[in-house]
Design a protein that fits this description.
Layout lengths: L1 H8 L6 H19 L1 H11 L14 H10 L26 H30 L18 H5 L2 H14 L4 H5 L3 H20 L2
Helix pairs in contact: 5-7, 5-9, 7-9
């Protein structure tokens, strides 16, 4: 590759054979200039007319109209109707306004119940009346991060409920409220239990 680059970039003197070819072509050019008869034959070959363009294979509108008038059995085709939009055979179910309002209500109640559970747990632990039973929440039990950590479960239940609401299966759509309701009731039960521990 290095050799090819050097050969391309560096000029080399011409080889003797190449110089001879160049002088032979110059001699031929001078001979043709002196020979007037040879020159005139070349000019005559150039003066011949060029071949004409090929004929068009597509008929013009006039020819088509005359052809249809001649052929009695020909009837022009009807204009093609434009393509209309195709409806989907299966459409994804949508939520109703009532379902949306109920979903928001369950979301708010679930988050409120989780906050009540976090408050009652912190109160019971700080008074020395109990410990956190959930191993995932145990690291947050002695700090204010407990309030944020308990909000993860209601958010997951809200997402699951929303997905169930627009599911393709009818039996799943009928039970979309179940995850949110179960999460809310569990948080309320835990909060009430914690408040009973503290005298």
């Amino acid at each position: 590759m290095l050799l090819a680059t050097i050969l391309l970039l560096c000029p080399f003197p011409q080889i003797a054979g190449a110089a001879k070819v160049a002088t032979d072509t110059a001699a031929v050019a001078s001979d043709s200039g002196s020979d007037s008869t040879n020159h005139s034959t070349k000019d005559s070959s150039l003066s011949q007319p060029l071949p004409s363009a090929p004929e068009a294979k597509v008929k013009s509108d006039v020819e088509v109209a005359s052809t249809t008038a001649i052929e009695p059995g020909y009837t022009p085709g009807l204009p093609v109707k434009p393509l209309m939009g195709v409806k989907m055979s299966v459409s994804r179910p949508r939520e109703t306004v009532t379902q949306r309002r109920l979903w928001y209500a369950l979301s708010i109640s679930g988050s409120g119940a989780a906050a009540f559970d976090a408050w009652s747990t912190r109160r019971a632990i700080s008074g020395g009346y109990g410990t956190e039973a959930n191993p995932l929440l145990r690291p947050f039990a002695h700090s204010g991060a407990m309030y944020a950590a308990t909000q993860v479960s209601p958010l997951v239940m809200d997402f699951v409920g929303k997905r169930m609401m627009i599911s393709q299966h009818k039996w799943v759509r009928k039970m979309w409220w179940l995850p949110q309701s179960a999460g809310t009731s569990f948080s309320l039960y835990a909060g009430v239990h914690n408040t009973r521990l503290v005298p």
